[in-house]
């Protein structure tokens, strides 16, 4: 290496050119050279984000704030939709309960109407049969069989009468026994009044046409004779003697 420098110096001296002494390159010089080289701008641009300008930071903050506002608005809308759905659910539940209650009332009402219709049909049918029972009872009270043949006929229709009465009992029909009871317009129909002092006024003395119950309801009112107060005899006029006759 020393020989080469000497050779260069010798050559320079021979040519008559001044000799330049090269100084070692410092770090500042190297940096200046690097700045002049192509691609140095890219290095600066890459390093720039480490020092973000104020406008860029403000823009980022505004973007984050806008995103937060959007998310808050979305959550508020979801909460509003949830409240609306809850309100609709409560309304549907209330409507369902109302419909269920109306249906239950309708079912009970139709069931009662059906039962009342059945009772009314039974009542009308039995009312058509009661005159037949009345005729059997009149015949039994008036007819007095004398011969063996008449007794046979009497027993025969009495058997039919008993069968009819048993059928009515199975349907819930029962007779009234009003004799000796106090007159009740809800049960009895007074067709006669008999003055008497043996019974209190308003006492049922006799049942003329038998009354009947159907279950606990009145099927037919009993026609009865009721006791009335006995009228007092009018006082006899007193004989007054005149002074002329005395």
Low-confidence stretches: 1-24, 29-52, 240-246
CATH superfamily of the domain at 175-230: Head domain of nucleotide exchange factor GrpE
Strand content: 5-15%
CATH C-level label of the domain at 175-230: Mainly Beta
Helices and strands: which structural class?
Answer: alpha+beta
Major sheet size, sense and barrel closure: 3 strands, antiparallel
Instruction: Could you tell me the CATH topology label of the domain at 175-230.
Output: Nucleotide Exchange Factor Grpe, Chain A, domain 2
Q: Whole-Å distance between the termini? A: 211 Å
- DSSP helix fraction: 55-70%
Query: What's the total count of β strands?
Result: 6
Succession of helices and strands: HHHHHEEEEEE
CA gyration radius, whole angstroms = 65 Å
Task: Describe the model.
It is a single chain. Helix 4 runs antiparallel to helix 5 (148-170). The protein has 5 helices and 6 strands. It has 246 residues and is α+β, with helices and mostly antiparallel strands. A hairpin with a 2-residue loop joins strand 4 and strand 5 (217-220). 59% of the residues lie in helices and 13% in strands. The strands form 2 sheets. It has a 3-stranded antiparallel beta sheet. Strands 2-6-3 form a 3-stranded mixed beta sheet, with no helix packed on it. It has a domain at 175-230: Head domain of nucleotide exchange factor GrpE (Nucleotide Exchange Factor Grpe, Chain A, domain 2, Roll), CATH 2.30.22.
